[in-house]
Amino acid sequence: MNFLKKRRYAFIRAVAVLVCAAWAAMTSGIQVSAAAPFSFVAIGDTRTEPYLTGGMEQAAVMEKVLKERYHNKPVRLYFDPIGLELARAEIQERSANLTLYYRDGWPRTIVKAENGGPRVIMRDSGRKWVCNRIVSTINRGAADPADGALFVIHGGDIPAFGYQGATLDESPYWQIFENELLSRLPPPGKSLGLPGRALAAVGNHETWYDDDISGLLTAMPWLKALGLSNSRRIYSVTFRNCRFIFLDAGGTKTGIYGEAWTSNYPDFGAQMAFLTDELNAAKNTGADHVFIVYHKPSFVKVGHDPLPMDQNPHTVIKKFAKDLNIVVFNSHTHTTEHYLVDGVNYLVLGAGGAPQAFDLTANPSPEAELYWKGRNRVEEYNYLQVTVDGPHIKGTIHRFRPTDTMKPLSVMEVFKQ
pTM value? Predict the structure, then answer.
């Protein structure tokens, strides 16, 4: 090897070593020094309801899909008399009726009728507004970090289920998410320090008819570089002065909605040991902020019960609240809620586009809810933007309320530290 070749080889090898060292530092908990202020976006529960394509001749298959989705509830289908495509589907539940209004195979509006009368609980225009705004702010952030967000965090429940196809190539649900959000995000680029612009936790719908989470792993393959796999559905990453920790609360047993930490990838005890190690590492390396993401809420009042305390990460998290600024993102319940418990901010971010929940759960958390504060809840689609400026953070909800004709769009600061 001549002198020039040796110099060139040494240079290439040195660059490779530096790149690997930087990536190892990011993924092992070694803090990357804070730089200029930046922001990111957090959302959850963007899923829609069953995609039903074809015409009247596919009625039997459509009914089968709906009965699988709604656990064998009675179903009635109505078809457009001209095009013979599905116009609406009616699902008879125990105490309410759901009407799904279809166009081009997708439910565009869902109305729930019960004792209080009919109420719109989902419009696909709400989900599209959320996706459009996130794409816009991240594209601005890619051009100028001071003008927009750098990446998006998803709390889970992107597909309805894997019953009609699990992987990105097979699933209409993953494809609509890619079309509306993922494919419209700018590439991460070397300067970002992340393998992708979107990070996600595993929700219960990601595992429904997709036991090996092939949908998530094929739609967002860059998560594998952060440690996510079928057998280990937890991972973490350091971004500047912040530590992001993703846990897996597990799926839901078919037809049963009692809440529990059901993951075995790994189990609850092993995940809490991982969480403890991560929080200790964040404390020891001087991280300013820690953001923890898992699907099922620690505290919630509407829709689903909160996690029981013997299966609740709060028992670990609260021990570190004196030394770390910790914010937790949950979803699962299709609403927005905010709690401040033992010095930790808990945000339930369930208004990404899924059918919305308004009914009090059987066992609501007794802690004070700080977003609605007891006021009547309205139909709302939103995302949270978190701004990080050294030791200071601010969380702002950007929201779309379609029933507020005079002021459908608004912004609300939910926490500032």
Answer: 0.91
